Amino acid sequence: MKDKKNTFTNNISRRDFMKTTSLTAGGLLLSTLPIGASAYAAGNETLKVALIGCGSRGTGAAVQALSADPGAKLVAMADILEDRMKESYDGLSQRFGDTDQLDVPEERRFIGFDSYKEAIPLADVVLLTTPTFFRPLHFEEAVNQGKHVFMEKPVAVDPAGVRRVMEAAKMVKEKNLNVVVGLQRRYAKNYRELYSRVKDGAIGEIISGQVYWNQGPFFIRERQPEWSELEHQIRNHFHFIWQAGDQVLDQMIHNIDVANWFLGEYPITAQGMGGREVRTGKEYGQIFDHNFVEFTYPSGAVIAAQCRQIPGCYNRVAEDFNGTEGFVSTGSPDPFSIKNRRKNITWRYESHDDPSPYQIEHDELFAAIRSGNRIDDTESASKSTMASVMGFMATYSGQFLEWDEALKSDKRMYPHHDLLPEDVDWNTPAPVQPFEDGYYPIPVPGQTEVL
Length: 451
Description:
Blueprint: H1 14-17, E1 28-30, E2 47-52, H2 56-68, E3 72-79, H3 82-96, E4 109-111, H4 115-119, E5 125-128, H5 135-144, E6 148-151, H6 159-174, E7 179-181, H7 189-199, E8 206-215, H8 229-235, H9 241-244, H10 247-250, H11 253-263, E9 269-275, E10 290-296, E11 302-309, E12 316-323, E13 326-329, E14 337-340, E15 345-348, H12 357-371, E16 374-376, H13 378-397, E17 401-402, H14 403-408
Parallel strand pairs: 2-3, 2-5, 3-4, 5-6, 6-7, 8-11
Antiparallel strand pairs: 1-16, 8-12, 9-10, 9-17, 10-11, 12-13, 13-14, 14-15
């Protein structure tokens, strides 16, 4: 596949990209702004919401948005798949059909690759929940039009996409918009309390850690004869690099983001290994079924990150950090606890009735819009996205990578946004094509080039 130059600058140094960002408990909560200086909504004003991407996560985000604010009203929906649109609307109708919060007649349910352009202008708040590949394009459009945004993680699948989001982030600041990104651990009460204690010195300085997202296999949607190759790949987006990255990006970004948050910095190098040990069939697309990444941080801290999607194995989704004066863990056998150097528990989070962090994300987003405060997760989410991208770049290539060179990379082991034409439809060739035997190109450590 031929490379294409990205139209956005790649002359970004680590110093520029890492300029001081407050790694607060949620996003970056900025000071209260004068009402006239922000996209502020009084308490009795309707906040019109548009949903871009109507899968299960998008439908869940719509439920949470409408639940966060009684003055929120869903007025538009957009997707490229008609069946997903129908399932989403029917589900929302069961929940909100008897209220005035669901107001999406058929003419405002837009279908097609350009459908986001029709839905976004109708809203004050936009929910971006499509597969990751489309996120930079949709985010750019929403910000250009001055909309508040909730967008799912990750914010991009490659360095070119991250740079595109960061370019749009400049307008977020200029237009005083609110942006919440679905790295929901930053909004969870147990994580926030643990973070606060770590920042207060409960375990001293963090010198190392281990983060995990080991689970069973991703689901597969069986190929249907009426699907084009492009539709097959989009419906199975977890298995294609150009759609979702790899598990390092799509899932372990949560754990990597917690490490970045608790350390208060972002990795400067990455190296690792991975491969396809069990899930080797053509139906599994391109991605690895196991990855291990070692991240090194400016402070000298080292974080070991592992993820796996192989059945019958030990599963663990958690973060452990080792400090000069103690240890902290978010997982079993002592979840959300702090231990001293003698491994005695000195504190444990005890609450078991916390609200869902998925809901808190929307509660705080809509509260900020109403109050004139600002939340902006764009920078921290972009940096954690880039750290995760650098992670799977390292496992795919088998090379030792530095942040600056990874961020500037336009090497195409997967296409980015300008490789789908503007007039795309279901007959457009997919960016990745199978070989004659039905198998797809797979990264090979030691051979795959990422820089």
